[in-house]
Amino acid sequence: MSRIDPITLGVVWGALRSIAVEIGTTVHKTAYSEQAREGQDFSVAVFDPQGCMVAQGPYSPGHMGAMSFAVKNALAAHPIETLRPGDAILLNDPLLGSGHLPDFFITQPAFHDGALVGFAVNILHHTDVGGQRPGSQGVEGIFDYFQEGLRIPPTKVWQEYREQEGVVAIIAANTRTPDKVLGDLRAQQSALRVGELRLQELAARYGRDVLRAAMDEIVARTEEHMRAAIRKIPDGVYRFEDFMDDYGPGTEPLRVAVAVTVDGDSMIIDYEGSSAQTASGMNSYINYTRSYSYAAAKCLTDPLGPMNEGALRPITVTAPEGSFLNPRPPAGGGPRAIICYRTFESVLGALAPALPERVTAAASHMANPTFGGWDRARKRRFVAYELVLSGTGARAAKDGCEAMSWAFNASNIPVEAQEANQPMLVERFELIRDSAGAGKFRGGCGIRRDLRLLADEGKLTNLSDRQKFAPYGLGGGKSGKVGRTVLNPGRGEQVVHGKQSRELAYGDVISFQQSGAGGYGDPLERDPQRVLEDVLDDYVSVEAASGEYGVVIAGTGADLSVDEAATRHLRTGMTADRSRVAPISGHPRNKPASRPPLQ
User: Fold this and answer.
1) Helices in 155-244 by DSSP H: which ranges?
2) pTM above the 0.85 mark?
């Protein structure tokens, strides 16, 4: 029986969500860095007085799943009874947070009339926290996280609203971009002050007891809804495997093996059989692995319900200690963002037989490179962060989307923002024709983004994938085309490994050509008029229209049309050719475009 009337509960719930959004909006408007201000690489949430997440902002699930554990770890180091108004606890320890050092979690309590009423919390990806490479996300040459930058255990950076100058000075001394890092850090704290004030106002309006009862009810109802959604999935063990290309030049692929066990109203996601941790930056600490596993399960079960502690309770995520999805400290983990797509999509792939109408095919993979060097125009060192977000996988009833974030909520950094703030020009930013996986519903196209470096002593830390193992299709849909990274495209171009660190010269062009997303359903069942529209939009070539979809396009230039008779004849022949090939039975498993040998 609810202890709070439904109208008050609804109003309080709306207020808590609004507080989370206002915290996020404040970060967004006051942050210094491009990745926070333009790419929205940050997250916010509101917690109850016991450190239980109640409401989150519409940001990255990779942060949100980890945030619950980060807050618990912060409060373990600084128990609730030791906190005072204006205290703010910072941590970025990979094991205690979201798995890499650039993510700064800050937890700030909110008191009303001397009593704790909750916490405002945010996390922001900082431009650079020192270490081997500009941007602190190197793959090559990393054997522990001491090489990746400054590690901060749970520490009060603000005490009773007073900034601790010594701590802040240490942070500033260990980054290549102190102005941006300190600007972003203070933006985080200012946003949390806004959250603190709003929580105090909410407690004053309804009373602390009502607010706490509403928080408890929201979490309880969320758990109930999540369990009800899981009960609709047939009980069983669902398995899938996929592969990361490798963990640097000359290394073997990394296996992601998952078994999803559905038992009544609970779910276990287990990564037993995945590859061992690596002597590189390519590792995902368990909180980060949990985060994207939670996110995938949430999308498939109760996507429109609240995301809080209640949504996490029915789901258990495990990975063998010592695997690259649960490494032992001090394993490197700076570039762990590149792994999140694979854990998310492996859960989707596992549950595809049980939920074929809800899953999507695999997405194009993002690129998340960082650059450093000497900006000769501004006469300073610089670090630049890039996001190249590409197509999403096709769905059971819709095409994939173009140029969108997948698995997390972020944005391609606008061309104008990069060119105004960094020594680089974006020379091309376009969709790649024929990159998307064919299907009754087409995957999203890959994105090409070419950047010319206008700096000396240039350093690139590349971070991409799906250059060997293509994004899988589902239900008869085809895989997308693999991607590549190219230095100075054209005559004499050099292919750059997806996780390579290398030097760049002034004027060099680096071209990020991302994979296309997987298709869904038989391509020969796609509406020919939709294929024509794709040709007119330059998503699909005339040759691919016939070769992949069996659709004959007649005419020239913009005056194109479907030759219906020739299309029927071609599709009949393609169907007959298929029938002469024995079908492969069983659940789809990803295959490499050219699979390297497993070690």
Assistant:
1) 165-173, 178-206, 208-231
2) yes
Residues forming beta bridges with residue 237, ordered by sequence position: 261
Taking the C-alpha atoms of residue 427 and residue 572, their distance in angstroms, rounded to an integer, is 44
Each of the 599 residues of the chain gets a pLDDT tens digit; together they read 457 899 999 999 999 999 999 999 999 999 999 999 999 999 999 999 999 999 999 888 767 788 999 999 999 999 999 999 999 999 999 999 989 999 999 999 999 999 999 999 999 999 999 999 999 999 999 999 999 999 999 999 999 999 999 999 999 999 999 999 999 999 999 999 999 999 999 999 999 999 999 999 999 999 999 999 999 999 999 999 999 999 999 999 999 999 999 999 999 999 999 999 999 999 999 999 999 999 999 999 999 999 899 999 999 999 999 999 999 999 999 999 999 999 999 999 999 999 999 999 999 999 999 999 999 999 999 999 999 999 999 999 999 999 999 988 888 999 999 999 999 999 999 999 999 999 999 999 999 999 999 999 999 999 999 999 999 999 999 999 999 999 999 999 999 999 999 999 999 999 999 999 999 999 999 999 999 999 999 999 999 999 999 999 999 988 999 999 999 999 999 999 988 875 443 345 565 553 333 22
Burial class of residue 452, CB neighbours in 10 A (0-12, 13-18, 19+): middle
Burial category of 121 from C-beta neighbours within 10 Å (exposed 0-12, middle 13-18, buried 19 and up): buried
Bridge-based pairing state of the strands 447-453 and 509-513: antiparallel
Alpha carbons 222 and 226: distance in angstroms, whole number: 6
H, E, C per residue of 277-290: CCCCCCCCCHHHHH
Tokens of 329: 């400290």
CA quadruple 137, 142, 143, 146: dihedral positive or negative? negative
Strands 509-513 and 501-504: unpaired
Structural domains of the chain, ranges and CATH numbers in brackets: 6-220 (3.30.450), 360-599 (no CATH)
Residue 147's CB is within 10 A of a number of other CB atoms, namely 18
411 neighbors 38 (Cβ within 8 angstroms): yes
